[in-house]
Design brief:
Number of strands: 14
Distance between the termini: 28 Å
Number of helices: 10
Largest sheet: 10 strands, mixed
Oligomer: single chain
Shape: globular
């Protein structure tokens, strides 16, 4: 069998079209940059930039934008063997508006259906999923069939499930050999309440629809990562420590709660806690910072670092991307993260040569 991947992610892919002018609404923008996008895909790119062997499981349209995404993945050294075309649906595009420091509206064009929600269980290479050192899945992957069934099938293949209220994984878990990350990734616009239910646009109804699937996925995860809104969807808690405790009770060994300007809280089942302040930067575009954080989180966990070091490293990676315009192409190399961790400025993209992961 080939050498296992360090990281396999599964989820969204698309083309990001970002305005090359900031601080103005889309109606006034006349030039855009085209970038690889999609949270799970960006996490794979971020981990690859740090020297990890990565792949993504997703789907595109059979169109020119799909061709572009394959080309971009190969340039970023992310294996695209499990990125397959869908004849029926076009590759999605996403626009954003950029109003620094904290307003970045997103406009998703994924109708009538995004190809990345057409992943079928029988298409999965479950041997590769089982063997990966980290498997990363997202809440969006649970929003619609057949992606939901495929995501849960992949989680089942990872061989870890814990009954709520118990302390031990069920048989099949391989201690110390795998990490399964659930990126809580709450995008309410992708969810629908069951037919016949009232108030289909009610945020609470959407959360109630999603929570059973989130709970099922949490039983298989070893790590849960999300912001306060996403924690509320998953476990009904918004206070950071309460959210972390609830996530641990639902299954994972490590809960990572992002608190925006208050930094990040990480709590491990063994009692280890790390609360780390954000790295101050002049924000250009906050989109993609969470994906850089995710790729760096994977890197630090694979390196076996202590929890505080992992969180500081991931925070620095996210800050670098927040200080740049793009997402995928802005993902930092290890040397850039080390410079920022040392108190240095965020380097302009491409000004520091990539080196082996640090």
């Amino acid at each position: 069998m080939p050498e296992p991947y360090d990281v396999i992610t599964m989820g969204r892919i698309g083309v990001d079209l970002y305005p090359l002018r900031t601080g103005v609404p889309l109606a006034q923008v006349d030039t855009f940059g085209k970038f690889l996008g999609g949270s799970a895909t960006n996490v794979a790119v971020a981990a690859a930039r740090l020297g990890r062997r990565t792949a993504v499981i997703t789907r595109t349209g059979r169109d020119a934008f799909g061709d572009y995404l394959h080309h971009a993945l190969r340039e970023f050294e992310v294996d695209d063997r499990w990125v397959t075309p869908v004849d029926e649906w076009p590759t999605p595009v996403t626009f954003c508006e950029i109003f620094p420091p904290d307003d970045f509206p997103l406009y998703f064009y994924r109708q009538p259906k995004a190809p990345d929600l057409e992943i079928h269980p029988h298409e999965l290479d479950l041997d590769a999923v089982r063997a990966a050192r980290i498997f990363w899945m997202t809440g969006t992957g649970l929003c619609e069939e057949p992606s939901r069934a495929s995501t849960l099938t992949a989680l089942d293949a990872r061989g870890r499930a814990r009954t709520p209220g118990s302390e031990e994984p069920q048989p099949g878990h391989r201690p110390g050999t795998d990490i399964t990350v659930f990126d809580l990734d709450w995008r309410p616009m992708f969810w629908k309440v069951p037919a016949g239910e009232p108030r289909s646009d009610d945020p609470r109804a959407l959360m109630a629809t999603a929570r059973p699937f989130y709970q099922r996925a949490l039983r298989h995860a070893t790590v849960a990562v999300g912001n306060l809104d996403e924690c509320e969807v998953a476990v009904g808690e918004r206070e950071p420590y309460a959210a972390a405790r609830a996530l641990l009770a639902a299954g994972p060994e490590l809960a990572v709660v992002k608190q925006g300007p208050k930094g990040v809280l990480a709590v491990h089942r063994d009692g280890t806690t790390a609360e780390v302040a954000p790295v101050p930067v002049e924000v250009v575009n906050g989109l993609g910072a969470g994906d850089a954080f995710g790729g760096a989180l994977c890197h630090g966990l694979l390196a076996g670092w202590d929890l505080e070091r992992v969180m500081r490293y991931a925070n620095a990676a996210g800050a670098i991307v927040a200080a740049r315009l793009a997402c995928s192409s802005a993902m930092p190399y290890a040397r850039e993260v080390v410079q920022v961790l040392g108190g240095g400025p965020v380097p302009a993209p491409g000004t520091l040569p990539p080196e082996a992961a640090l």
